[in-house]
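Students often ask why we bother encoding 3D structure as a string. The short answer is that it lets us treat folding as translation between two languages. Here is a chain of 420 residues written in the first language.
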Amino acid sequence: MNANSEFDSELHRTAIAQLDRVAARLGLDADIHGRLRYPRRALVVSIPVRMDSGKTEVFVGYRVHHNTVLGPTKGGLRYAPDVDLGEVSALAMLMSWKCALMSLPYGGAKGGVRCDPRKLSMQEKENLTRRYTAEIILMIGPDLDIPAPDLGTDEQTMAWMMDTYSMTQGKSVPGVVTGKPLIVGGSAGRREATGRGIVYTLYQAARHLGQELRGRKVVVQGFGNVGAVAARLLWREGCTIVGISDVKGGIWKPDGIDIRQLEAHVAETGSVTGFPGSEPISNSDLITQPCDVLIPAAVGGQIHEGNADRVKASIVAEGANGPTTPEADVILRERGATVIPDILCNAGGVVVSYFEWVQGLQYYFWRESEITARLQEVMTRAFNRVWALGSKEGVDLRTAALMEGIKRVAEGYKVRGLYP
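And here it is in the second language, the structure alphabet:
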């Protein structure tokens, strides 16, 4: 079976290359390695949607379970114009390593619908979400697969998914999704979890490097939920946020951006662009500006062979999934930059999703202070394990994180054996 046939995409090729490299380093059993290269199951569905015009448009959707060896699968649902089976399968694989790395009882999953959510009305998005949920309903459930928000989806999307699933069960099932509104069983602290987790890993990286986080100059690419939360928390902790961008462009202000004023500007205009007192800058140029910490929190492949040698940050904290290509990884490593890999850096979201799932199953909800403290404990413990392994093996943090996550999944396969 050719891994580059049904699932062929740049992201999937990268994920497979990472797995193969780490498997060789771990001396992984060839049979288990072979099983890890493919998803356990993948579903492709057509989604007919009645549009506001009265016409029916058909979209393509996916749901992929990479493995179920450590528990039910967990992974986000993205709405984007370029979603394909290869991308979704790669992200499901990365979710397997991420969940295992964070010691969560989950396998990896991912879902996607090929659409442009910005061109859909609220009613069209609801119709799309409900029909997609109905089409994949045989693959989801609180003890089977638990979707969550991702690129192009949000709390409202999860509420529609939960309601659609619950209607088929004849009862409310809050544990079928995470990242939903508080009023229907969401968790306090879930919205801020990914950005908060980035800050916790940055604290640990600075500590291990003998630095203070306070006073560092920070660039954030992407001012969505993840980037905005990370920027706000770092600004409150005394960092100088010198550059920020969103899908419409970026801003540069060497003496520091007041995040409260920027948030008010974004609420009024819909973008960071045009912020008073700042210079306009493109997303690509922002990445190579002078700073101490770079947080790519937008989309994948932003740091690549063509610009990695011009990245000046000493710490790169990957808020997005796959923002650094393998070629760029080598360049950053050679120039001494510390890269906190995505499966560690942005894992705060899935950690608090796990907390939400547990709360939903128990119908008992925790205070936000408890959730934040537990998140910090999990993120700190995982970071320190990865740092220690990297130091012991003489490898970068990405390799160490992948070694830890892949080894745990492989051990699960080994213990459980092969049925039949």
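Translate back mentally: The two ends are 20 Å apart (CA to CA). Keep this in mind for the problem set.
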